[in-house]
Amino acid sequence: MTDITLKMPVVLIGNSFKYEIESTLKLFFSISRFAFSDNIEDAVGDNYVVAGKDGVRLYADVMLDGELTHSEKIFPDDTQDAVFEHELCRLIFHLLIERTGIIPPWGLMTGIRPVKRVIDLMNRGLTKDEIFAQLTEKYEINRDKLELAYATAVNQQPILEKINTKAVSLYVSIPFCPTRCSYCSFVSHSMDSAIKLMPQYVDALCRELEITGRLVKETGTKIDTIYFGGGTPTSITADELRTIMECVAKNFDLDSVREYSVEAGRPDTITEEKLRVIRELGAERISVNPQTLNDDVLKVIGRKHTGEDFLRSYELARKVGFTNINTDLIAGLPTESAESFRNTLDRIIDLDPESITVHTLTLKRAAALFANGKDYAYNPASEMVDYSIKKLMDNRYLPYYMYRQKNTLDNLENVGYAKKGFESWYNIFIMDETQTILGTGCAASTKLVYEGGRIERIHNYKFPYEYINRFDQLMEKKKETEECLKRISTLPQK
């Protein structure tokens, strides 16, 4: 088989469907890079793809390991470009199944929000069978994945029906970690390098929270959910955490908040003092994330804690009084076996947390692990994910939110499972894109949701020094936020 790490020539003839064709190729070669051109002379070597449109005729050539396969199809004269794009991808999709033996479980679906597709069809009045028929015809999705997406949609619906149309959510970014995990692509910064900036960062973040809080109050908007993310928010000191959370309490009406979450994250950052600050200042939901309980795997991915450290942190959170704890696991971590993953999941279930999120390893370009991505091409991630679905649902954990990412092993998904009544509203809202989210802090993103589904994003600066030094410029960028909040305040109460 071809070396999947090499750049593969992809020649587009008579079309500009680069994005979707690249997404389709990623279903089979998740960590490959592609060299796109419109010159047929670039279709050389043992591995290349030609995707062509000649009037109403579509054709595809796939050369792998020196063996060429071809497919083509003719369409009616009134065919729309969107159909041509999808069907050209389908030609390539089937040729690659034939040549690689890989059958992507999500079929041709490349979007990150499969549950949104299901909910849209449910809202149009389609039955389960009709939804499955439509999605199967268009995307050729595996039946098991359809069942998972449908179950997730069913569990989301009661919460989406209770959405407050006059409310927004607040995201607070603390993008720092004690060390960077090898799989991580988030914009996060080592505490070693950021420590000298921390007083200035806390000050700038509190200034942004004050400005955002004033806009919320002046427009009569309510805060629905609050989420502290990162990084690892508990990387900072208890006093710094207290300062930020007190600023939130001072500038926002917490009486309207239906969910307040803090990513405690890595066990090596958790102390009793920090947990008491979090609970005292209003957050009732936290995440304590082992990723795995296998110490050897933890070392490989660069985590500076053990499985026992996680267990101690978890019990400490219970001791402090938290009754809503989430734990994150990752299927497909380097050197993790299917048996080791099963052992981790079984032990986590025995702890009886209120929710468990199962991610699948994603090989992002910004992550250190990407360089060795070819080593994980045959990782048993699928077996791990299949086990987690059955095991969790058998133990009364229901899927309630889901998303997919490019470069994920076996084209799998990330799923949050929760006991009934412990679903994270924030996670549902951000995936469904039905509520405006005000992002504060370095690398945060504000998502302004307008009527009709239009979404505008305002991105904060990625790096702490930039966020601090260009703060006034950033606030100028965010003037659109006020107009969006004014509009929300005029909406009828749902």
Polypeptide structure, described:
The chain is of the alpha/beta class and 494 residues long. The protein has 3 domains: 94 residues, Double Stranded RNA Binding Domain (2-Layer Sandwich), CATH 3.30.160; 42 residues, no CATH class; 323 residues, tm_1862 like domain (pyruvate-formate lyase- activating enzyme, Alpha-Beta Horseshoe), CATH 3.80.30.20. Helix content is 40%, strand content 21%. It contains 17 helices and 18 strands. It has a 9-stranded mixed beta sheet with strand order 14-15-13-12-11-10-9-6-16, with helices on both faces. A 5-stranded mixed beta sheet has the order 2-1-3-4-5, covered by helices on one side. Strand 17 and strand 18 form a beta hairpin. Helix 3 packs across helix 5 and helix 7 runs parallel beside helix 8. The chain is globular, with a radius of gyration of 24 Å. It starts with 6 loop residues before the first strand and ends in a 5-residue tail after the last helix. About 1% of the residues have low confidence.
